[in-house]
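Figure caption, in words: inputs first, then the predicted bound structure.
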Amino acid sequence: MKSQYADRSAGTARNHHYLSSDVYAFMPRLVVILGDQLSPAISSLREIQSDDVILMAEVASEASYVKHHSHKLILIFSAMRHFAATLQQLEHQVLYLQFQQHIGSMTAAVALALQQYPQLRSIVVTECGEYRLEQEITGWAEQFSMPVEQLEDDRFICSRQQFALWAKDRQQFRMEYFYREMRRFTRLLMSDHNQPEGGKWNFDKSNRKSCPPDLQQTPPLLFKPDHITSDVMALIEQEFADNMGAAASFSLAVTGKQARQAFLHFIEHQLATFGDYQDAMLMDQPYLFHSICSMYLNIGLLDARWMCQKVEQAYLNGQVPLNAAEGFIRQIIGWREFVRGLYWLQMPEYKTRNTLSANRPLPAYYWTGDTQMRCMQQALKSTIDHAYSHHIHRLMVTGNFALLTGLEPTEVTDWYLAVYADAFEWVELPNTLGMALFADDGVLASKPYAASGKYIQRMSNYCQNCPYDVKKSHGDKACPFNALYWDFLDRHTEQLSGNARLQLAYRQWHNKAADEKDAIRQHAKQTLQQLDHL
Ligand code: DLZ
Ligand code: SF4
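Bound structure (DLZ present):
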């Protein structure tokens, strides 16, 4: 099966809406590579010439715009250092500025580079992943009086412009329709007659089994730190002592080669089972059958097309079932591309949204994990220990709790951006503000992902290990999620009761006896008052 997108990845993608002039084509350039652009085939490196200088810099502003988890900092700095070493081996001129050199920002790093190499005449960078930094980069042309070329980031399959075209004239953006177009475009899991493999586009309903606690699991491939990583671990331990996470337990991949090994290990040992148990949660099993590769993909150590082709091959070879292959590919060419498109389409206004007027501060235990609620404690423990928790922890436990309790969106989104090794704003913001908090008035999700303890009970074995009682909605030791869920619906009746997908839930609420409703409201009120002490 030939994929049409494979050809596109081999071409060059030059984004002409920024300054670009042939006059500068033969003059030495400063090529800036950011910490999440560690891909040998990235557009900014594709036409590199011998007298160009590559700049990579560990800078204070990027390392502290949120209080990043220490593993995220180690991952990015160590992977940057390994990538720079590879570029140097390929005999490129690389100016690498380490954190110890106290460079304040990417702009300060560029200023230093231009001072050190006065022969440079223009700046080239692949478009970055956050609006905040894009604004900074856009100021360079004026500040340094030279052309700045921002190239398309064609590591993504759908460009920002293509997404805008898709979105034009649509009232609603639904991932499912976007995903179908991406399947047709990439030809992944498509029959020769342009029909989806297995006769269905989406096997989501076959991805929701709860997991037997004794099911055999193979852990993900982890890596012993080499001397470069060990140096970075010591640096982060010293300079970011207050940040979440123990630097000493860092064991992620830091090179493309390691990341590919980790992904192939996932295909061999976990993917077949991943399909069924994508949404399951188990006590002290943070990984289950997930790939733990999103952080590698998002900093450029893995290539999305390569990953999808490997997964498709595993299906075609009979190694994994269709619900697993389709479920994985949907995450990459569906959700991942979709949220990125929406982010750029709607920034900067998107970040200011707060549809449900949520205004409560984030409870302290989001940073410490110190809570009695077993589900929250497990999701937070995984976050603190590994800078990782899987999508159902993020959406249906910590995210659901933030939605039900009305936590202020910026506090929540800054937290997600800080604590996950794979979090960059293009992916984190739509997932948190839109999907988890429903703060964007349904642009991303067709209904709020609000759920009571019943959902968590169905998908995990947490409730049987929890001091709260999942069967109770009020009274002593009642599961906080239950009263909060009904109270959430009640509080937002005006805004949400018209939503077609919430009709059943509202009917159930209205059918409750008046004194039961009052007891639930009262319990929710108390719970909200004690939010920091649950
Ligand atoms: C996230 C991050 C961190 C922590 N540190 C750096 C850094 O020191 N230097 C750098 O070039 N990039 C870093 N990054 C990644 C950038 O913040 C990233 O490019 C933006 O988040 C936009 O995608
Ligand atoms: Fe979470 Fe409630 Fe279950 Fe406890 S009983 S684990 S708080 S859902």
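Strands lie at 29-32, 53-57, 93-97, 122-126, 148-151.
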